[in-house]
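Q: Hi! First time asking for a complex rather than a single chain. Here are the components, and I think there are two in total. Is that enough to go on?
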Amino acid sequence: MSNTLGVLARFANPAELIEAAKKVREAGYKKFDCHSPFPIHGMDDAMGLKRSPLGFIVGGMTLTGALVGMTLQYWVAAVEYPLVISGKPFFSWQAFIIITFALFVLFGAFGAVLGMFHLNRLPRLHHPVFYSDQFARVTDDAFFVSIEVEDPKFDDKQTQAFLTGIGGVDIELVVGE
Amino acid sequence: MSILNKHPERDPSVAEAVASDELLVTGGHTFTTLTDKVSGIVEKKTPPQWYLLFAMAISGLLVLLGAIGWLVFEGTGIWGLNNPVGWGWAIVNFVFWVGIGHAGTLISAILFLLRQQWRTAINRFAEAMTIFAVICALVFPGIHVGRIWLAYYMFPIPNQMLIWPNFRSPLLWDIFAVGTYFTVSTLFWYVGLIPDLATLRDRATKLRKKVLGFFALGWRGGNRQWQHYEKAYLMLAGLATPLVLSVHSVVATDFATSMVPGWHTTIFPPYFVAGAVFSGFGMVMTLALIARKIYGLEDIITVNHLERMNKIILVTGSMVGYAYLSEFFIAWYSGNQFEVFAFINRALGPYAWAYWIMFTCNVITPQIFWFKKVRRSIPIMFVASIFVNIGMWFERFVITVTSLSRDYLPSSWDYFSPSFWDIITFVGSFGLFFTFFLLFLRFLPMVALSEVKGVLPEADPHHYSHKDGGAK
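A: Yes, that's all I need. Here is the structure of the assembled complex.
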């Protein structure tokens, strides 16, 4: 038994892919994506994507890191193991700025990478588009639009005809096993 | 008005500037030929030179392991350390290797924020160089007391002694700064690799496809992914930029917060950062010239790229030279007799030979890059890049050893000479570095493919509307 998972159409170049993205969006499709070997400038607007919320994740993580750094040093130097060093106060915060900053950056970097993985739902080792044989070219030189079967507007025949109409070639019905 | 605010199609001056700018990739490459070229390096037969270099690197690594083994067995007595000079080649080598790493982050993060698109040809292997250089650097604090089983003393972890490290010490700041630097550089490098690993995955079969597919995480190049990916890349660049400037500043405070004449100066942090970038570009240049030759990457790493790197070497080398001179001025101007003596001793004392090697290599060598012909001559820049690395190693040697060997009390002065084990530990660290680097060249894409494709004219959607007569 086989089941349809979506439709894939190839476009010739980045400019055509952007035009296609606009038309797919205007036609009312929601569950679609535009695949390319490199990020294309202007594609976010063409697809009508909202701003990535990653900045908020990273911002939260950096502040957490700074807080952890300063608290750790305060607790060690002033609470758990107070030692007089060069006659300075136990909580000599000026000397603690550097490690606070290091942890600010460290937590922020993990926030950026893991936050990006989360937003992109990675790792996800399998996906319907990988059923297509031509899709391997997406990491080389090919530009694709994919529309998923879950999209409310999706219809085997109409969606394929629509993608042909806006200039797609090698239209392929993605069928799972 | 900045060039960024002008519209290229409405403002002819910008259009001319863009058109006259040389192409970043030469040789008429398309997306496919670039993929074939870069992927081919790891897919096709490995060139014989690689095996020769790898055999040398592994030999060096074994020498390092042997030297560390003897150090652990016998103790730091095998090194040339003596009573005033308690910090010898271990810290010299540590600072040398950390410094080399800085060029990779400058290329990958700072030049990214400055939108220097030429960075795409060199950023991948410069980042790899950073990671491996920092690994080499981290070896030295790990082994420098000869008792590697006590390395955990460096970390703030609960222990059986119920004591904690001193957070007011720059040596502990170093642990956090360099540790963070290593982690962030590795994350940055891996994020950059994901789309290129997917490229290799899509060209592979069987087990190789599965392994690459695992590390490519299922990347499928959808714009919904690129959107967050690019944001993450920007965020990492923004975080790595202040980080890289802070790391060598913190290394500088290891020296500057002490009371030793010649070390206790506020110029140290910026001077160390400039020196680090300088030495790192020297190393990037050496590696780039070799890799470019062996793998035939002249179209991707063009002479224009090399010329720009030489300009950075000239700028940072001159900054280092300025710092050397201003140290002398400040020593004199301070009126502090110990400070004055420390600097006269550096230039004219028992280590004058080392000082003048440093000065010649670091200050005089890069001045040849004022001339365009020299900036574009590959043999000259290769030799100069090696001089830069020699000079920057000697800079750390001069700073560390001259000040320690003759401080306040003449009765405690002594001359430091390295032992056989000092020398082979340092030589062996190159073995460690090149082992990692050659494995990287062999198994991973050494050019950031998706980024280089992104700077081809064909990647710009506007490129096509012009060709059709500009109907838009």
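A: The longest helix of chain B spans residues 170-203. Let me know if you'd like any chain examined more closely.
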